[in-house]
Amino acid sequence: GPGERGFCMSRINLEGTLYSLTYGVISYINPTAVEEKPLLNFHPGTKCLSIGTFGCNFRCLGCQNYDISWDTKELDKIAAWALALQPSVRDRENVTGLGLNYLSPENIIQQALDNGYAGIAFTYNEPIIWVEFVLDTAKLARENNLYTIYVTNSYLTPEHLDVIGPHIDAMALDIKNFMPFRHH
What we know:
Elements: E1 11-14, E2 17-20, E3 28-33, E4 47-52, H1 66-69, H2 72-85, H3 105-114, E5 119-122, H4 131-143, E6 147-152, H5 158-164, E7 170-173
Parallel strand pairs: 4-5, 5-6, 6-7
Antiparallel strand pairs: 1-2, 3-4
Helix pairs in contact: 3-4
């Protein structure tokens, strides 16, 4: 409903339009070996810049990235700011005033190039949560000869794959649980 957020907590309804609260908001950034994604036969021996944001479409018991993907107080802070200012999806530079780490797609690509990384990995939380940012960054990565990796919980629609697929070089498909999904 109006002023409310969805299950992922990273989208808000402002007067009937859904807005991303996490475009460019980086909860964690770290250089990692491509084998850690785990992709063993995809550009072996290279490093990629791994990035993530807040929010997820799952609530996995024992999530190893809970602290960097589910800091709800940070999401609450962004949502309050969004409700007060009604920003556009791409007007994110001002979130730095909230004490959050904002990086544009251009900043991400430049960091990767400056440090000699071979690619960008969208990981730590479900990349579908910030698909606009992932798309913008992946397109720039391709223009700069950087590979892209999408580490996903595999809960994707064919429509999403049609949108993101042409811009992603590799996907790591995680299996989260063999038990039925539980809400808590």
